[in-house]
Amino acid sequence: MTPKDNELLFVSLGGSGEIGMNVNLYGTAGKWLMVDLGLTFADTDYPGVDLILPDLEFIEQQRGQLIGIVLTHGHEDHIGAIPYLAAELKVPLYATPFTAGLIAGKLEEEGLTGQVKLHVIERGGAIDLDPFKVTFVALAHSIPEGNGVLIETAAGKIFHTGDWKVDETPVLGQPSTPEQLTAIGDRGITALVCDSTNVFDPEASGSEASVHDGLRAAVEAARGRVLVTTFASNAARLQTIGRVAQETGRRVVVAGRSLDRILRVARATGYLKDFPEPLAFDEAMLLPKSEVLIIATGGQGEPRAALARIAAGQHELKLTEGDSVLFSSKIIPGNEIAIGHIMNALSDLGVVIVTSRQFPIHVSGHPGRPELERMYRWIRPEIIVPVHGEARHLREQARLALATGVPSAVVQNNGDVIRLAPDGPKKLTEVRTGRLVLDGDVILAADGATIGQRRRIGFGGLVAVTLAVAGDGALAGDPLVRPFGIPVEADLDDFLTDASDAARKAYGDGGREPERQLEPVRLAVRRCATLWTGKKPLVDVSIVRVD
């Protein structure tokens, strides 16, 4: 699919109909431009898997038409897939300094330094990627250097917000003013491609600066050690926590690799210069409890993060009766159970748990309805294209924009090819999209045989059957049956006898082609297991030749 000279196309390969894994394509004059290349995190539908990656088959087949990847900011759902997929695309990356620092670290960890070209663009800078002119537009978000991008082409102009909010008293950086955004709207914007995450929130997200007083009050109310958990990427929150620690006479301890990385990159790019120097773990444990403030990863219930290990007593840092844990973050949908497990473990230690219900210790990095309405008035697009949301978020933002005066809206899904200009919006066709999984060090199809088998094993267990076959094709002994995860513990011996008999009867005399009996044996053993347990396990049958 080659975009025509006079048309402007939009295709989402991730992030539409879901929150996370953002990948967006713009096409015109025979070329494509990618904005963001993110991932999402696996849930229980993907046993043994941590990371989900977008399937880029559509653009990989046209990589000669792809001219570059522009990154709006440094969150994992916008840059996380770069070390796994960018090298195959063989195009340069463009990012502002802080985001570029995070990307450079990822490329170094994967041994890709020098193999993927990474261009650092100053905040507010512009790049000419013919036929696209791209200008980075500073916007507030919960990470340094959040950017929208103004994409100008001969066929039309796009303002792609990335993740954003309105923050009139930012802690780090300076977002664009209403006057600057209005000037962008004055250029005549064909389409506003906009974050939908908080479209159902009736109130504005609030300023990051407002968190300070709530955090200070919560820390002052605490009597023992205090642990604050927040999103590691929220450098402005780290700045606030560090300031609160100094104001309340506490020394800071940092626990978590991602926090160490954010602090390192932030300082290297000019942020967090006055953040207090963290203590080592052993030093912190020797101080009086009232003089310690721990900043730790794991507020979303991640089982291997610092907070989970502290709660389980498996970390050098310890919490005991009367200590406090402040959850300075919101619960991401889907993480409720995991976070509940961590909170229960902390409660068993006698720890006091504090959330934003007790003190105002968190604000969102995404726009509520009042902020969305302000953006519509500043940019005045012809078309609204909601992204970064599930179906209900996308449709609600389309309704809100139309009600606010935006002339047209398009609710699209991953893979929909939308012509924005001329005469847009119009869906032209659909292209293949999907998910890949990072399973260990291997990238696989999320709906492929490996993950499908793993789900079946997790649900029904596994039965391995080994047939010893003589030279004439007859069985040389009883079939060996080995069950794994089959609920027959109390009756194991009887089940093994029954299953072995079923396998022997199904095999018969074998004949000259014993391999042809593998499927009858598999079905017979599975029927036997189902009769015993009500489950339908995965059954694997193999032959061992005996001379």
Protein described:
With about 550 residues, this protein is of the alpha/beta class. The chain has an 8-stranded mixed sheet. It has a 7-stranded mixed sheet with strand order 9-10-11-12-13-19-20. Helix 4 (about 95-110) packs across helix 8, helix 5 crosses helix 12 and helix 12 crosses helix 13. The mean pLDDT is about 95.
Architecture blueprint of SSEs:
Layout: E1 8-14, E2 23-28, E3 31-35, E4 40-41, E5 51-54, H1 57-60, E6 66-70, H2 76-79, H3 82-89, E7 93-95, H4 97-109, E8 118-120, E9 126-129, E10 132-138, E11 147-153, E12 156-160, H5 178-186, E13 191-195, H6 211-221, E14 226-229, H7 235-247, E15 251-255, H8 257-268, H9 281-286, E16 292-296, H10 306-311, E17 324-327, H11 336-348, E18 352-354, H12 369-379, E19 383-387, H13 391-404, E20 408-409, E21 416-421, E22 426-430, E23 435-439, E24 442-445, H14 449-460, E25 462-469, E26 480-484, H15 492-507, H16 518-533, E27 538-545
Parallel strand pairs: 3-6, 6-7, 7-8, 12-13, 13-19, 14-16, 14-17, 15-16, 17-18, 19-20, 25-27
Antiparallel strand pairs: 1-2, 1-21, 2-3, 4-5, 5-23, 9-10, 10-11, 11-12, 21-22, 23-24, 25-26
Helix pairs in contact: 4-8, 5-12, 6-7, 12-13, 15-16
Strands of the biggest beta sheet: in what spatial order?
8-7-6-3-2-1-21-22
What number is the mean pLDDT? Answer: 95
Could you say which overall geometry the principal axes of the C-alpha atoms support? Answer: globular
Output the structural class: alpha/beta
> Biggest sheet, in brief?
8 strands, mixed
Radius of gyration: 28 Å
Give start-end ranges of low-pLDDT stretches: none
